């Protein structure tokens, strides 16, 4: 990556196709209210232990929440995302966004990365080459060049921190309490949207549910159990395990 990245959207619509868009708690409510499907992605780690990336310690701690797991405690990160296995439901026939003025925060930020530890790499994005050959400066050094865009990035990071306890409570109320280990995969749930919307409308209290980690590697399982964590390797019924 160079010290400066410029960018201008070409309107190709590729970023709106085949991508599950992370949503804030309020955005998830709006998505559910408009008859959209939400996918819930969950990963967990142990503080200064399995799954925790040491170089991202502050970042992952601030966007995670402690839960009971086995004889100890894990921290879980929960993402509510707009479920878009194909074209986004809000694209018109010309690949234009029909909710542009109300589009989710992450859509407003794209293609900038939300995680401060992940640099923007044009080759990892779906945008055509010409998008990176025109337009204003997007990144200068390691910083977002546009102050308004930088403010949106900070707002997204803050929402991750502010919403996490409520997201965990919603998951527990709906029985979504099996997580993957961070760095090893995600568990993915497609909740029934009526129940999900009801839980979002009045976020339940933390019910103290006990969590389980889904792992499929014998050595990793032994490591986690050695830390007192509850694990499972049974074939999932109500969720999918997406391994790395």
What are the key terms here?
244 residues, five-stranded mixed beta barrel, three-stranded antiparallel β-sheet, 6 helices
Describe this entry's structure for a reader.
The protein is an alpha/beta fold. The chain has one domain (4-243). It contains 6 helices and 12 strands. The protein has helices at residues 25-33, 57-62, 105-109, 147-173, 193-201, 218-226, and strands spanning 4-6, 21-23, 38-45, 65-69, 72-82, 137-140, 143-144, 178-181, 185-189, 210-214, 231-232, 240-243. Strands 3-5-4-10-8 form a 5-stranded mixed barrel. A hairpin with a 2-residue loop joins strand 4 (65-69) and strand 5 (72-82). It is globular and about 55 Å long. The two termini are 25 Å apart. The model has no long low-confidence stretch (mean pLDDT 95).
Please render the helix and strand layout as text.
Elements lengths: L3 E3 L14 E3 L1 H9 L4 E8 L11 H6 L2 E5 L2 E11 L22 H5 L27 E4 L2 E2 L2 H27 L4 E4 L3 E5 L3 H9 L8 E5 L3 H9 L4 E2 L7 E4 L1
Parallel strand pairs: 3-8, 4-10, 8-10, 10-11
Antiparallel strand pairs: 1-6, 2-5, 3-5, 3-9, 4-5, 6-7, 9-12
Which stretches are poorly predicted, pLDDT < 50 over at least 5 residues?
Answer: none
Secondary structure: helix percent: 25-40%
Total beta strands = 12
What is the radius of gyration computed over CA atoms, rounded to a whole number of angstroms?
A: 19 Å
Q: How far apart lie the N and C ends?
A: 25 Å
Can you tell me the overall shape? Answer: globular
**Structural class by secondary-structure content:** alpha/beta
């Amino acid at each position: 990556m160079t010290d400066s990245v410029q960018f201008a959207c070409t309107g190709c619509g590729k970023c709106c196709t085949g991508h599950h868009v992370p949503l804030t708690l309020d955005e998830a409510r709006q998505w559910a209210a408009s008859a959209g499907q939400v996918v819930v992605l969950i990963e967990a780690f142990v503080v200064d232990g399995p799954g925790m990336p040491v170089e991202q310690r502050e970042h992952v701690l601030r966007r995670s929440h402690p839960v009971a797991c086995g004889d100890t405690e894990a921290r879980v990160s929960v993402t509510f995302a707009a479920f878009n296995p194909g074209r986004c439901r809000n694209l018109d026939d010309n690949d234009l966004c029909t909710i542009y003025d109300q589009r989710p925060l992450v859509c407003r930020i794209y293609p900038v990365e939300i995680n401060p530890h992940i640099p923007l790499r044009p080759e990892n994005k779906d945008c055509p080459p010409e998008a990176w050959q025109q337009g204003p400066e997007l990144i200068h050094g390691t910083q977002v060049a546009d102050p308004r865009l930088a403010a949106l990035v900070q707002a997204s990071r803050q929402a991750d921190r502010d919403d996490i306890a409520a997201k965990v409570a919603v998951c527990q109320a709906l029985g979504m309490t099996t997580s993957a280990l961070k760095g090893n995969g995600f568990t993915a749930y497609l909740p029934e949207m009526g129940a999900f919307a009801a839980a979002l409308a009045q976020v339940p209290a933390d019910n103290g549910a006990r969590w389980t980690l889904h792992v499929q590697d014998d050595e990793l399982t032994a490591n986690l159990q050695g830390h007192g964590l509850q694990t499972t390797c049974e074939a999932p019924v109500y969720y999918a395990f997406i391994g790395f």
